[in-house]
Design goal:
With 62 residues, the chain is an alpha+beta fold. It has one domain (6-50). The chain is 13% helix and 29% strand. Strand 1 (6-7) and strand 2 form a beta hairpin. It comes from Halorientalis brevis. This is Small CPxCG-related zinc finger protein.
């Protein structure tokens, strides 16, 4: 199974983890944007990246 990723429409960066996204919570729910350029990222893509297990030391899911 391949790891989820998304190419940013604004700067072309390949976003592969939630660390590369900025999350903003508001009254209408969460919105996500690219850390590098601030372009909005679709919520479904951001949620998939946020639930991805990468095996790093900060990955709390085992």
């Amino acid at each position: 199974m391949s790891s989820p990723s998304h190419r940013c429409d604004g700067c072309g960066a390949t976003l592969q983890s939630v660390d590369e996204l900025d999350r903003r919570s508001g009254t209408a729910g969460r919105s996500w944007s690219c850390t590098y350029c601030g372009t909005s990222v679709p919520a479904i893509v951001a949620e998939k990246l946020s639930h991805h297990r990468d095996g790093s030391a900060t990955d709390r899911r085992s």
